[in-house]
Amino acid sequence: MDPKTRAEIRKENELKEKDQKKRDKEREKVEREYQKQLEKEGIVTKSRKNENEKVRDRGRKLDKIILVVAILLVIVLAIVFII
Prior knowledge:
Layout: H1 6-41, H2 48-82
Keywords: Membrane, Transmembrane, Transmembrane helix
Region (Disordered): 1-33
InterPro entries: MacP
C-alpha cells in the first residue's frame, strides 16, 4: 500500500465534506419543493413555518403579560413601602 501524507488525507476529507454538504443542500431543496407541492394540492395543511409563527406569537404575548405583571408588582411594592 502507498502511505498517504497528512495533506492528501486532509484534502480527501475536505472533498468528502464538500460532497456531503452539496448532497444535503440538494436534499433540502427537494424536500422544500415537495412540501410546497403537497400544500398546493391541499394534502398537507400544516407546515413548520406556520407552527413556528404560532409559537413566536405565543412568546410575544407571554412577554407582554410578564412585562405588565412586573410593572404592576413594582407599583404595588412602591405603594407598600411608601405607606
